[in-house]
Amino acid sequence: MKKFKKWISLILTTSMLLTLSGCDKEGEGETTEDPALTAVTDESGNPVTDEEGNMIPEEAEPEKVYKVGFIYSNEVSDGSTNAVFENAREQIEKTLAIETCYLENVLVSEIPAAVRELQDNGCNIIVSCSTRFSNSITKESQASADTHYINFGSDTSNANMSSFGGELYQTANICGIAGAYNTETNVLGIVADPSSYNVYGIVDSYVLGAKEIWGAQTDVRLNWVWSTDEAQVKASVDDLVGQGADVIMCYTESDIAAKYCEEIGVKVIANSCNLPEIAPEQYITGFFFNASTFIVDTVRAIKADNFVSTVHSGGIAAGTARLIDFSPNSREGTETIASKLYEYVKSGQAHPFTGEIKNRDYKIMVEKGQQLGFSSIRDIDWLVLGVTKVSDFTKVIENPTPSDMVIKE
Q1: Has residue 24 been placed in a domain?
Q2: 223 within some domain
Q3: Which bin fits 265, alpha (ψ -120 to 50), beta or left (φ > 0)?
Q4: Cα dist from 364 to 147, 374, 382, 384, whole Å
Q5: Boundaries of domain holding 29
Q6: 278 near 255, Cβ under 8 Å?
Q7: Residues linked to residue 220 through DSSP beta bridges, in sequence order
Q8: What pLDDT score was predicted for residue 341?
Q9: Going by DSSP bridges, is the β-strand pair 188-192/161-164 parallel, antiparallel, or unpaired?
Q10: 370 and 233 part of one domain
Q11: pLDDT tier for residue 396 given thresholds of 50, 70 and 90
């Protein structure tokens, strides 16, 4: 009897397999096989059948749904750096058909709560939009492996996190030449947020560009400010103008300074991609990250299940660091001079941090003939000779206002 049952089972199994492969007498050579069909099997690997002898198909695994959450340290409407991330968010929705949302005004101490809030809202990809968050986001990525992270300003990666930055110092150097070429007083002003990405590298490279025009006579005044403190930013600009600066370079994560320069009639260079709109009469040129490509490509790779963690950086040649078109109001010849240097930097024939370079204390920081690589430039914490005065307008915020943690789309 046992032997008989064994043969019956074999016949049923063979019959079902022939049925699935489409081998019947009426349609020889035809097939109705569904290559995507898989059946439930028992411990021995044999197909499990129902009472009528039909194989029981496995339920198809539903397609994974992705949602991307962005975390901002200030108001989305503050422009500048945020405008770049908002462009990426728009592209993700438009080209990948993936839903996005964001939290704004998030403090560093609130990153764990912000990540939980986004995850509870269905986000399984999180984009950090400020260098202030880079360390906290790295810790979060290690604690939640089921979420992918895209971390701005970090130089580390892990299995579920990629990081990115850019060699903005290249474009800042060209802007320094443009600024020096357009000053009438030979006094250049800089308003910079000390928490901005690679701030010393950007400031120093701008000054080195100015020195290509003015040499030892280069006179740059620097004021440190917090990007979103409007009163502080305006006071720092007024201070520089009072010192004789007639060209202000703004390196902040808001567009307050650039708008104010337009308002008071002072020439401005800034890291904002909409300068022709917010300072049409006074802007000379500017520089910005083209971060959208990397962010969108990373999200696309995650969706396609071929994500590979990486640390991305790029300059002019890679299209990551970009210049804003020169203003028709800039001094004649500005674009010609700057464009030549742009091509030299792009082709690798010119490098802003080529020694000999001294700091404000006349100490040699880059030996003659030596070139600093990007990792070294990213670690710079000194100011180059040519910065003649530094003032700090930042104030300690005793009780910062927490985010309302309201998710917006």
Answers
A1: yes
A2: yes
A3: left
A4: 45, 19, 11, 10
A5: 1-61
A6: yes
A7: 188, 387
A8: 93
A9: unpaired
A10: yes
A11: confident
Residues 6+ apart with CB under 8 A from 104: 72, 74, 75, 76, 403, 408
Residue 38 has which token pair? 């898989």
pLDDT digits (tens, 9 = 90+) for 286-343: 999 888 999 999 999 999 999 999 999 999 999 999 999 999 999 999 999 999 999 9
Structure tokens at 260: 């104010």
Where do we find the tokens 């939980």? 116
Look at residue 15 and tell me whether its pLDDT is greater than 50.
Answer: no
Tokens of 106: 């998030």
Residue 256's H or E segment, with its range, is helix 256-264
Residue with tokens 């003032």: 391
One-letter amino acid at 381 equals D
Rounded CA separation 286/292 (Å): 18
Mean per-residue pLDDT of the chain: 89
Q: Are 191 and 258 in contact (CB under 8 A)?
A: no
| DSSP-assigned beta bridge partners for residue 152 | 164
Comparison of pLDDT for 121 and 80, the residue scoring more = 121
- Of 12, 35, 61, the last residue of a domain is 61
Overall number of domains in the chain: 2
What letter represents residue 246's amino acid? Answer: D
The structure tokens 């030449």 sit at: 177
Q: What is the pTM of this model?
A: 0.83
Q: What is the mean pLDDT of residues 367-386?
A: 96
